[in-house]
Amino acid sequence: MPLRPKDHFDLKDAAFYLAEILTEDALSENRFRMEPVASLPKFHGAAAWIDKFLYIILKVETPNGTAFVGFETIFQPRGTFHKYSVEYENVHDLWAYDIAGESLLKNLDFDDPDRIIWFKTDSKHFVPSTWSDVLDLEHASTRIWIRD
Asked: Is residue 101 situated within a structural domain?
């Protein structure tokens, strides 16, 4: 299988896949705790880009307000299993190895809806700390997807 170039990786799909996985995960956990559906967080893909690593920012809506959470993961241009889309495989690996079983909501900043809380960011690369910084990044990079 030939190496799939970074510029053929669909950033929007990756962000939407992660939002979908986390929403389904929250629904599953909610059934276990028998909490009302209205209390469920809703995850939405907000931005994604590749700069050696894959970065994804999700917007999280809860009854407590809205917040942003960012993720950094190793980018696998070919995926890992070669069974699903490369976008889904990259996001699934992020979820399976770094996110599953962790509580994302407890660390989010619902008092400052512009602030991005980064989940397990290990690199020394720049990550934007606010949504305004992401919008500035959009002007400096041709390889970023931002939800309209």
From this structure: yes
Nearest to 43 by CA among 29, 26, 64, 63: 26
Q: Which residues contact 131 (CB under 8 A, 6 or more apart)?
A: 46, 57, 68, 113, 114, 115, 116
Residue 51 lies in a domain: yes
Neighbours of 58 (CB within 10 A): 27
Give the pLDDT of residue 8: 76
Domain with 128 in it: 11-141
Kindly state whether residue 28 falls inside one of the protein's structural domains: yes
Q: Give the span between the Cα atoms of 78 and 82, in whole angstroms.
A: 7
Domain count for the chain: 1
- Mean pLDDT computed over 8-19: 92
Residue found by looking up tokens 């809703």 in the block: 42
* Whether the Cβ atoms of residue 41 and residue 61 lie closer than 8 Å to each other: yes
For 69-108, what is each residue's pLDDT tens digit? 999 998 888 766 667 788 988 999 999 888 887 878 888 8
116-119/65-74 β-pairing = parallel
Global confidence as pTM? 0.84
Neighbours of 82 (CB within 10 A): 9
